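I am still getting used to backbone structure tokens and would like to learn alongside you. Would you supply a protein for us yourself, any chain you care to pick? Start from the sequence, derive the backbone structure tokens from it, and show both lines together. Go ahead whenever you are ready, and we will take it from there.
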Amino acid sequence: MPVPRSIIKQIKQIIPPLNGTLHKGQSGRVGVLGGALDYTGAPFFAAISALRLGADLSHVICSPTAAQAIKSYSPDLIVHPILREDTSYEKVESDLRSLLSRLHVLVMGPGLGREDYMQSYARLALSIAREQAMFVVLDADALYMVGKELPLVKGYCRAVLTPNVVEFKRLSESAGVSPDVPTKERAGEISKLLGGVVVLEKGPVDLIASDTTGEAASLEASKLDEGDEERQRVREVVEVDVEGGLKRCGGQGDVLSGTVGAMLAWGKCYEDGAFGDGSIPASRLPLLAAVGGSMVTRTSSRMAFQLQGRGLVTQDMLPQLGKSFSEVFGEDLWAGDKGRL
């Protein structure tokens, strides 16, 4: 089933105009938290994908053991090696608070790993992000983290979770989804049980679900769309069946988390009034970003596969992100639209 035109129209509204009216930073400042001794590619793919989609600035918050490698991949990334195992918790907390206050979105999980100190800092970062009402994307080992401690994300409607097949099964079990729930309804059930977080279930068809009708929906959601309770109490599931490539390889999920992160950063700029008419409620932005990121990532996978076939690697997708954006949302929004204000 094609994505409804009404949703595509709303996504277009949160894409920053290219007409010379915005200054640096008003098209999104993205943070990626991840990168430890064994994992340097994943945070790079997430951070660079956000830039390639059109975010202005992309920061990687990582361990010093990963910093030099990530810096060497691209001079366009701003790398902060502050997640030190031998540094006091208080020092890291202070650094994180200062850094996150300057960002529009935090992508957590790519290259995070499961070392105790990295998981501890990730819990801290998520707590700070909630305090600051940031949009967050949770992937990979950040999903492992919240699967063990559901209250970390429960009720936080500014969060987008992006599980693959294995992560989705684990998350379903942690959330207590009944095995009797039909397959296509499970993403919505997880969202409901977790109080309205957006769940992007990756698969042959991506399912994006948001359900704020359950008892677990937090009053915290009122920060998103104050005074609009009717819009908050909704259940919505969107199927993204845009054709993707036939080759799956490690790192494609990191590209997705980066594109969703970029669109959430745009959503935050839209919410703050940098552009647009403000007619889209903030409570809707996570779902729109998840749908948009899914559509572009799947399209770039298809384009890269057409060029590389069986030899496709994730890096082949990066040059296709701009072309994919143009195909999905129009060349005018990619190359510049002087008619939009």
Remarks:
- The CA atoms of residues 13 and 276 lie 7 Å apart.
- The chain has a mean pLDDT of 93.
- The first helix runs from residue 5 to 13.
